[in-house]
Amino acid sequence: MNKLRLVVNNQKKGKKEIFFIKQEFQTILNLYAKMVSNGSWKDYGLSLGKKQVSFDVYQRASDKPVFRIFKNLRPKSFKEKYILKDKNGSIIKKSENLSYLIDKTSWSSLKVIK
Fold first, then answer.
1. pTM score
2. Are 57 and 40 in contact (CB under 8 A)?
3. Among 14, 49, 72, 106, which one is most buried in terms of CB atoms within 10 A?
């Protein structure tokens, strides 16, 4: 019994992010709510990988994602931390700040190609 010890903080230091943090996810969900209310977006999904996490936006549940907001967990450059891609996988915008990426994108001018 003399070998018992109390562990107060058992979290590993240097643990890498594996998902969106709370502020990032809140920013994305605020945009999603706005776009659902005006009828542009219908559904969303999340994709997890070792190198990136994505928030996928659908116009219909059976289609491919219309837009994908990526968070690179291992970006090659500082500016490639957040990436916005369209249905075909083409990069629309890149940024190091998610709020900037979402605020400076003209969502009403982006048309969904069927």
1. 0.76
2. no
3. 72
Gap between the Cα atoms of 44 and 71, Å rounded: 16
Give the 3-state secondary structure of the chain: CCCCCCCCCCCCCCCCCCCCCHHHHHHHHHHHHHHHHCCCCCEEEEEECCCEEEEEEECCCCCCCCEEEEEECCCCCHHHCEEEECCCCCEEEEECCHHHHHHCCCCCCCCCCC
* Residue 26: closest CA among 98, 110, 112, 113: 98
Choice among 18-27, 41-50, 55-64, 91-100 with the minimum mean pLDDT:
55-64
